[in-house]
Batch of 2 targets.
Target 1
Amino acid sequence: MEDLVRRAVGEHVEVETVVSASLWNTTLDPHQLENVVLNLAINARDAMPGGGKLTVELSNTMLDDTYVSAAHEVPPGQYVLLAISDTGTGMTPEVLERAIEPFFTTKGEGQGTGLGLSMAFGFVKQSGGHFRIYSEVGHGTTIKAYFPRVLEAEQTLPEPVANEVRGGTETILVVEDDPNVQATVVGMLSELGYQVLRADNAESALAVMKAGVRCDLLFTDVVMPGKLKTTDMVRQARALLPDMKVLYTSGYTQNAIIHGGRLDPGVELLSKPYRREKLASKVRQLLGAKEAMPGPAPVAYSHLRAHER
Ligand SMILES: Nc1ncnc2c1ncn2[C@@H]1O[C@H](COP(=O)(O)OP(=O)(O)OP(=O)(O)O)[C@@H](O)[C@H]1O
Ligand SMILES: [Mg+2]
């Protein structure tokens, strides 16, 4: 993931990865782990506006009885430790105390949902692990995630089929308030052959559609500043253009958009940050489908289910 992390934090942050030799094995969902690492890296970036250093470490570690009795809920034993450290602002004791609370954020409107750390915490717990935050104002923060060692042999996941990068010629309206992200997405979609329109917020997106432009797909950020909420814009847009497909994108997984566990037919979500291949296949999947179909099952790691407790 080193490349992805580097791109996420930007050039002013130095990234160092330290992976111990003979690392033990643990069982977890690699996609969720990837998401968590990126979320933590982005938190670190946000804490280092003037630049700094991000260190990602993987090592084997023992949690002994003394540690465990202090931290109760975790059994003593062998763990694989993922530690992510930054040299940023750190957190005050008040912030630290509430940091993993869902929706707790110190970031401005449209900047953060406060779900990053709570998701990371949830994932580590769900993996049978243990999660700690160490932070000191003015010095930085270290997030430690301990995953229980398993003695099973390593399992290699089949690589996703490489022919997924397919483009098209349909019209896509990109709604994104961050100009850099917007430019990147517009660039990627144009390269894939699509006709691309852009809007900076929900109001102007709706104006484009009301003007009679036929869009085949609306690709919109979930969290944007502005009076009109994204979900309301999408509702009105689908009334205007019932055949139009909708692809949401968000840095914050499903929860905010999926109520009652499912999206409307013809509506999908792509979690940020995503690779070009992922964008291409998601767009193609939506546009190619004659009618909305549920996303493909994650066949690649269905074996994980068998080991869940
Ligand atoms: N590495 C860090 N350094 C300093 N403060 C942090 C760090 N990570 C998290 N925080 C603090 O904890 C709060 C909650 O973090 P969390 O990742 O849950 O939400 P967020 O980053 O605000 O929003 P989101 O992750 O949804 O974009 C942040 O708003 C910030 O105040
Ligand atoms: Mg965050």
Note: The first helix runs from residue 2 to 9.
Target 2
Amino acid sequence: MRGAPNMPSQIRVTFRFKILLSVLIVVTTVVSLITFTMARMFHADKVAYVEDLVSLVSVHAASEANLRLSAYQDQLVTAGRVQDASNILGERRDEALWNLFTRTRGLVALRVFEDGKMVRLLLDSLATNAAGVSRASFLTTIARYTIPFDSIEVGTLYVRNSALSSLLPLSTIAVRIPRAAGRPPLMVVGTVDLNRSIALGRSSRAFDVFLVDVDGRIVSHGDARRTSSRERLAWLPPLGPGSLAMVKETERGGKPMISGIANVGIGGLRAGAEIPKSVAYFALRSLLINLIFLALGLLVAAAVVSLIWATQMTRSLSQLTHAAQAIGQGNFDVQVAVPSRDEMGQLAGSFNQMASELHGRDRALKEAQAQLIQSEKMAAFGQLGAGIAHEVKNPLAGIQGMIQLTSRSLSADSPLLETFAILEKETKRCRTIIDNLLKFARQENLEPEPIALEEVVADTKAILHHELSLHKITLETAIPKNLPLIRGSPNQIQQVLMNLILNAEQAMESRGHGTVEVKAAQRDDGFVDLSVQDDGPGIPRAVQARIFEPFFTTKPAGKGTGLGLAVTFGIMRDHGGAIHVQSEEGRGTKFILRFRMAGSHPATDAHPTKTPDPEAPTPGDERAA
Ligand SMILES: Nc1ncnc2c1ncn2[C@@H]1O[C@H](COP(=O)(O)OP(=O)(O)O)[C@@H](O)[C@H]1O
Ligand SMILES: [Mg+2]
């Protein structure tokens, strides 16, 4: 797929943004679901409650109005009876009729008609005067509201709005009183202020409670002006006598209302209650607004929290990225902070572990590489040395023979004798070097046999005893009696021992005293360790790296050839063993020779140099060859 990376500027959506977005989506969904469900439930509940309440208030108002109006009806009937009673004399009749005014609240005028003609008029002048209306104008005005006497039936009450002025929001009520046969019925008409007499639900501040007549005109209302203006409610539903109450959504002055209407059951009147929707659903609205604010707050909080969280998380990720890049460049020392105990923390932890493991492997690899280079170098030296030795060995033998022959033919007092002696000695030295080189390059055949290290050590000690005592060097040996036999050539092992002990002696001879310890110990991996330790000056680190190289020496010319340890190395290699060095400057040097036990199988190629020996004493650095 070559196309993908070449696509024109793809938008890079960061991890942080993705987290933020998903958190916001989830929070928004959850919050809006909760808000929506709550609002719906609350709305349904509240609507039912408000409708119930409106209907209840209207029913209650209706029953109150019913009580009042039946009382009016009774008073009017009583008034008719009093007027009609023949046994009551004029003055007492007047008194009885006037008494009605005190018993009937809000009654302003009382008229009695017979055959369409007014036969009696009583008027509460106090009320008309208080309203600033003269008796005459009051009478002419109320006379204008004609009453359909014929349609009023016995036992029913006629009620109509007949307002005079804003101060007198009056209504007309009337009853028919039947009389004995042949006489026309009496019509008793009262003019009454129903606003004053019926205190419909005045205690409620939220509800408007009112009473309307058959025409739909308000006859009683908390706000008297609505009666005096003869306001007519257009929305009134036709209400059958069976239905007790109903609730409707209406409108007044552009404001939506919830209205309830109930039959009073007298005079065709109806009681109503209305409440503005804004008032009825105030709690619902404020709940909604609160919910919206809460939701917004939650959203902001979620955004902040998820941003912080995402930042933290991506910070760890970018740390990991940087660390991985550093490791890629070979810097294994990086460690990332473990931020928490969650998966991120686990990732950081395993990353750190991986880094340190890689570090370890890198170190091991480098060491192995160095060892490989070293042994390659040795092999090259060996080959080179063997070639040179071969070429030089025979001419050297010839030279030596010629020197011996020539010196023998010289007379005893010849001054050349001394020169020839030196020539012979130096040629011998050359031959020794050549022999050693050949030994290092494995030119000699090894005939391995089981040998006791104890004997080899004892022989070596005997040979070197004199030499060592000259320089006040003590040689201590500690070889366990039950040490198993090893495989090898006694001569070569003796040479190895001599090389090591003489090196130790040479290192300490300038000081004038010293100790060399030769110890042996059996290992449980089929090998035996033989160590040669001195308390001399030790070998500096840089020198340690090179001591096994052929011709490497720190000694003055003529004193050291630099072949001792190279030969030792070659012998140990040929024995299937190894040699290690541990040395610390100022504290001494210890060479450890590792031999294969006589009984053990040589094929097990457990080359000791490859596995660092944890039991080996480590006074300082350890070098193995
Ligand atoms: N026991 C020792 N103490 C200090 N230095 C030593 C010891 N053994 C070996 N060396 C160092 O290792 C070098 C190489 O030793 P070797 O191969 O025997 O060559 P040579 O003895 O001819 O110098 C020596 O020159 C010396 O610097
Ligand atoms: Mg030496």
Note: The pocket of magnesium ion (ligand 2) is lined by residues 499, 503, 560, 564 (CB under 6 Å).
